Amino acid sequence: MQEKYKYAEFSLQFLKITKVILEENIKRNNTQSTELVSMSKTDFEDYFYDVTKYSDYSIWIPLIYNFYHGVELCLKNIIFLTTNNISKTHDLEELYRNINWIKDLKVLEKYIFTEKMENKILKLFFSEISPKDFYIYLRYPEVDVSELVWQEEKILDFYKELEKDIEFLIKFIVSYTREEAIISK
């Protein structure tokens, strides 16, 4: 991997793993476990792991972290390719403002700016902080997601929309990075 394209490559990896997990979650209909009380300990452990493997109960924090980290790296990739400078900030709002001239990336506004968030689950999740602080907020267990998980019917629609937006973003990153590589030759 050429040094110049590391941000694109890393961004794609974080976004692709998020997309794969979302696809499996959607396929399993965000399965939750409701029959746990009457099971033996062994049955419970096996069943619980299998049933919740891809549910929001088990994946919400790493899923959202991977998504937002992929977005951060995407934005840094574009800034680097257009200015040859590496941005050290983790502030998604600041990074986005540096590339907001790219109209195709307007789709990111609903994930970056709390006032533009359309999804109730994201609004609730980021009610206490801004996505610009996600890199701290999502790495430590002080986060309370109890109101978010176990909302199968609400979160599935969000996951479907997020999966579609990630698919778009992956294609954009590949296309944009390829075009910049051709231009810089």
**N-end to C-end Cα span:** 16 Å
Mean pLDDT: 83
What's the domain count?
A: 1
- Radius of gyration from the alpha-carbon trace, in angstroms: 18 Å
Major β-sheet profile:
none
The helix/strand class is mainly alpha
Name the overall outline: elongated
Number of strands: 0
What percentage of residues falls in helices of 4 or more residues?
55-70%
Strand content: under 5%
List the helices and strands and how they pair.
Blueprint lengths: L5 H22 L13 H12 L3 H28 L8 H8 L9 H4 L7 H6 L8 H4 L14 H32 L2
What's the short story on this structure?
This protein has 185 residues and is mostly helical.
What does this structure look like?
This protein has one domain. By secondary structure, it is an all-alpha fold. The longest helix is centred in the last third of the chain and has 32 residues. It is elongated.
Which key features would you list for this structure?
185 residues, 0% strand
